[in-house]
Each structure stands twice: as C-alpha cells, then as structure tokens.
Write a structure and sequence with these properties.
Elements lengths: L2 E4 L5 E4 L2 E2 L5 H12 L5 E2 H8 L7 H16 L12 E4 L2 E4 L5 H11 L5 H12 L14 H27 L3 H14 L4 H13 L3 H19 L5 H12 L8 H16 L6 H14 L3 H20 L3 H9 L13 H14 L6 H14 L6 H17 L2 H13 L8 H18 L2 H17 L3 H18 L4 H13 L2 H12 L4 H8 L19 H15 L2 H11 L18 H14 L6
Antiparallel strand pairs: 1-2, 2-3, 4-6, 5-6
Helix pairs in contact: 1-3, 4-5, 4-23, 5-6, 6-7, 6-8, 7-8, 8-9, 8-10, 9-10, 12-13, 13-14, 13-15, 14-15, 14-16, 15-16, 16-17, 16-18, 17-18, 18-19, 19-20, 20-21, 21-22, 22-23, 25-26, 25-27, 26-27
C-alpha cells in the first residue's frame, strides 16, 4: 500500500491509516529534509551539514543508519537485499520518491480551486484545512533548510483561510465566516485583505457598526504600528459601508432577477412563441455554469426544439436551434442520442430556410453536434457555415461557425496546425468584438494544438489566458481543461487525482465516462478505427502498441497509414494525456513491418 507523508504539523507517515514508527528526531529530520527536496537527490554531505552544526565523528555512518531504519519503517515487506523503491540511493545521496504528501495535496487543492465556483471552493478548502495538525514541519522551526518551505506553506494556509471566507461570503454564509476571520485577523493583524473580509462579513450579517469598528481598528493598527495608511480597498469599503452601497449586498442581483422574471411572467403570455426563444437564451447562459447547470441546459434544449417543431414554424425552429451557440471544446457528445436528434431537427428545418444567417447557424449546429462521427456531412456543413458567416461579416456568427469547423478537424491524424489556426482566429476575432466565451475557446483550442506541436511554453500561456478570462467572466468549466492540462504537464499522480475529482462534478459525461475512463482499444468503432476526436492520435498509438505485442501485421499497416501524417506531432493533442512523440510509433511500425518483409507505407 502507498505510504502517506504528513508535514502539516509534526513530521510523520502512515500506512493504511496506521502511523509508522519513525524512531528518533534525527530520523525524522532526514525524512523531512528529503520531503523538502521534492524527489531530488540530497547528497550525504548536505544531510550531515543540515543535521549537525558541528558534525560528530562518524556522522556519515549515522546518516546511513538513519536511512536504513527509515527504509525498514517505510517498506517493511521489502525482501532483504532488494533495492528500495521509496527511499532510494542515487549517486552521492538519497531521494524520497513520495507521491502522497499532505502539503503537496494542499498546494494542489489551492491551485485547482482557484477558478472554481464558490461551492466547490468551500468544499475543497474546508477539507484541505483539516489536514493541518500544527505549523508545517513543526519540530524543525529552527532548521535553516526548512525555513523557505515552512514560510511558503504558512502563506498558502493564510491564503486558503481567506479564500474560504470569500467562498462563504459568495454563498451568503456571512455569519459563518465571522468567527474564523476574527481569529485570523487577531493572529495575523498585518493582512489587510483579512480585515476587509471580516468587515464585509459583519456588514452582511447586519452588523454595520461592528464592521465600521473593525475598519477603524485596522486603520489605527496600520498607522500606529507601521506608519502607513490603509489600502485604497479598505478605504473604499469604509466609504461604501457608510453609504450602504448596493454592490455590498450579495442578494441585490437576486432581487433584480426576481423582479425581472415576475415582470416577464406578467407581460408575456404563457403561450407566446417568444418564450421559447427566451428559454434558449437562458439555457445558453445556464450551460456555461457547468455541473448541474450544463446538465439542465442539455435536458431542456431538445424539449424546446421539439416544442418549436410542433408549432409548425420553421423560422422559429431555426431560431430555437441556432440560438444555442454555446462554445464546445470536447469532441465527444455528452448525449449522442440527443445530439443525433438535434442534427435531424436542423436538417429537417434547413430546406425551408432562405435567410443566410439562420442557415449558417443551423449548419454550425449540425457541425458541432456531429462531433466525433465519421461523416463528411459535418465537415461540409462547417465549411458552408464559415463561408456564409464571412460573407455576412457577422463576428458572433463566424465564431460559432469556426467552433463547428474545429469539431470537424479530426477526420485524420496530424491536423493540429489547422486547429491552431482556428484557435488563433477565434482569439483575434473575439478579443476585437468582446466575445469572451469564444476567446476562451480559442485559448483552449490553441492549448491543445500547441501541446500536439510540442510547444508547451505556448500551451502554458494559453492555459493562463483561459484561466484569467474564466475568472473574470465566471466560467467554471474552463478549470476542468486547464487543471487536466497542468496535470499532464507535471505527470504527478496526485495532480491527476485532483483533476479527476474536478471532472466528476463538471456535467460532462462524454468526456469523463467515454474517453478518460476508457481510453483503450475497446473504444474504437466496429471496424477497429478510433473515433474522429481529440484522442485520435493517442488511440492509434495504443493500437500500434498492441499490434507490436501481437505481431499483428494488418493492424500495423493500418496504424502506420493513420499515424504518418502526424509523425511530427506529439500524441498530446487532447491537452489531457501525452503518449509521447508519434514519430516513435511511426518509426517502430516501419521497422517491424520491414522485419516482417512488408513494404512500409
């Protein structure tokens, strides 16, 4: 079983929930020093210097004794004279190949929840903060080698407490946030953001006088102790509280919504066709919230289309279908049966529509909902939609059509350069015309394409840009893709576990169940050909590997033909998994086919 290490408090380790006996303080010091190194080798000489101010005679031998004792504790079932797998000897020293350290998990949770909705932030941080059993590396507070790590973790913990409070405030739990924030500012009085959050929590708990008193206390402390005035943010908050500014009330938006919907119900008849179009607009906004919102939008979208068709009005049906221009990045439908029905409805409606903009929206819908299918219709529809949108010079329509074209650039391997151009055009177009969701889509497309092309610095920049926009425009689903991408970049199993948890609540079963959970040969089409999607190259590489193991001549020929156009790419075009250079598989296929006496393609 895997050993779990704890440094958020006294240094310890557990196996199957049972704390391991790590012997004396110097044994723990060696373990702690190796954890701080994060898998890197720490030379024996460095360990000696770190453990003793004046090393005694035989210090090097003592280090070896400590390491041997730690190995027995960490791997009690390891056969004698077999190499250690966890605490290894490498070159001039030792390295700990740990995969589960509470501090690392804490960092991952803090990073992965940065752009999550408040519910997910609160849930993740409340659990993560329970992992703290005291100050980090508690018994090594005076050790110089631990100072930087302890300081970093302490700062992250304070950030987590403040982010937890922000989530509570966003969820209307202001009173719940007050006690923790009160203790927080008492212990860390120089953190101005903590004072701001406490004052805001008090104000939203109907304690305006207490909120103002907190801000006065903060001002007095900062001026008398540090000789500085409060930050502009604190000063603005004090003014806003005195004026009872509307934006301080998190329920104001809810009241506006309730008033507007009530007015709509009073003035628009329940039988009015305009309600169907309004419903689609609502579903479009609901879809980008992720989780249950995306699932609800998907559930009600087909019902709206069916209702429009039943009214016998093709133009209304075209509007109801085409208004749902939600950017799509994953190339497998979450509900293939529903997608097929939407495509069928769009195809039934097209012959009756002459307006070019409406036709373009129907064609773009056909292209997007035909994602992952081996059909020429989707590509033809996407190309026609893009052409019509360019003729009409309609930026929003062109962005929608380009999304459809992106979905149809998987009919063969090696098309990452084409997708990169589509992503670049989407970014330029969207930034120029304030199409935020499509600008995010462009960055995600380029993240995937640059990964396939081996440009990871470029992919990193697009991940950062996507996250920044997502935070600004409250698009929580973006974090699913950027978190998986960073897990792929790190190769850290803990990062993948965090990404998997994030994906489970995202409302995207097409991505979760069909692709990532079952990325294997049994997910090919009946004739043994992988689906035309973001994992096309990765699946062909897996097929090639299986053919190697079985000396399957026919499959090797098919894999070589499929992978050759992508020979200069990485099998990382999904931005989620990386199977390495496609060139390796192409060259190995050619070598094996030549050995079998076959002419390589």
């Amino acid at each position: 079983m895997q050993v779990v290490f704890g440094v958020l408090g006294p240094v310890t380790a557990w196996r199957d929930g049972t704390e391991l006996a790590l012997k004396g303080p110097r044994h723990r010091a060696v373990l702690a020093r190796l954890i701080v190194a994060r898998g890197r080798v720490v030379p024996v000489d460095s360990l000696v210097a770190d453990l003793w101010t004046v090393p005694p005679d035989g210090a090097t031998s003592s280090i070896r004794t400590f390491v041997a004792a730690l190995r027995r504790a960490l791997e009690p079932d390891r056969p004698a004279r077999t190499p250690a797998e966890l605490l290894i000897t490498e070159g001039p020293g030792y390295a700990l190949k740990a995969t589960d350290v509470d501090a690392w998990r804490f960092e991952q949770v803090l990073a992965s929840t940065a752009n999550h909705p408040p519910e997910a932030v609160l849930e993740g941080l409340e659990e993560a903060l329970t992992w703290w059993r005291g100050p980090a590396y508690a018994e090594f507070a005076d050790a110089p080698w631990a100072h930087a790590e302890r300081a970093k973790l302490a700062e992250l913990r304070l950030t987590a407490i403040e982010r937890q409070a922000e989530a509570r405030l966003a969820l209307g739990l202001a009173a719940d946030a007050v006690p923790a924030l009160d203790a927080h500012v008492t212990e860390h009085p120089w953190r101005e953001d903590a004072w701001r959050l406490l004052a805001l929590a008090l104000y939203r708990s109907d304690r305006q006088g207490d909120a103002l008193a907190v801000l006065r206390n903060a001002r007095t402390l900062l001026v008398e102790q540090l000789g500085v005035d409060p930050s502009p943010a604190l000063q603005r908050l004090e003014t806003d509280i005195l004026n009872q500014a509307d934006h301080l009330d998190p329920l104001a938006a809810g009241r506006v919504w309730a008033q507007a919907t009530a007015a709509y119900d009073r003035t628009v008849a329940s039988s009015a066709r305009a309600r169907l179009e309004s419903t689609v607009g609502l579903l479009r906004n609901l879809a980008v919230t992720g989780g249950s919102g995306l699932e609800a939008a998907r559930e009600h979208r087909l019902a709206a289309i069916t209702a429009a068709e039943e009214l016998g009005d093709p133009e209304l049906t075209a509007r109801v279908i085409g208004l749902y221009d939600v950017p799509a990045i994953w190339t497998r439908s979450d509900d293939q049966q529903q997608a097929d029905e939407i495509v069928a409805a769009a195809e039934r409606t097209l012959p009756a529509i002459t307006l070019r903009a409406a036709r373009a929206r129907l064609l773009a819908t056909v292209a997007i909902e035909s994602r992952g299918l081996d059909s020429t219709r989707g590509l033809a529809a996407a190309q026609e939609a893009v052409e019509l949108a360019r003729q009409l010079e309609d930026p929003a329509l062109l962005a929608f059509a380009l999304n459809g074209l992106f979905m149809q650039t998987f009919y063969r391997a090696g098309l990452a350069p084409e997708r990169d151009l589509i992503g670049a055009e989407l970014i330029t177009l969207s930034s120029r015309h304030d199409l935020a969701t499509y600008e995010v889509l462009g960055h995600l497309i380029r993240l995937q394409a640059r990964s396939a092309l081996g440009d990871f610095p470029g992919a990193d920049s697009h991940a950062t840009a996507a996250d920044t926009l997502a935070q600004r425009f409250e698009l929580p689903l973006v974090a699913v893709f950027t978190t998986w991408y960073r897990a792929m970049r790190s190769g850290d199993p803990a990062a993948y576990r965090g990404a998997a948890v994030l994906l489970e609540g995202a409302g995207m079963p097409g991505m979760l169940e069909e692709d990532l959970r079952q990325l294997a040969l049994d997910k090919t089409t009946p004739d043994g050909t992988p689906r035309a999607d973001l994992l096309l190259e990765a699946r062909w590489c897996l097929i090639a590997q299986a053919a190697f193991e079985q000396d399957d001549y026919a499959t090797m020929q098919r894999a070589l033909k499929a992978l050759t156009p992508a020979a200069d790419e990485l099998a990382a075009g999904s931005g989620l998994v990386d199977l390495g250079p496609v060139r390796y598989y192409v060259d190995e296929l050619r070598r094996r086919l030549a050995r079998l006496g076959t002419t390589a393609l």
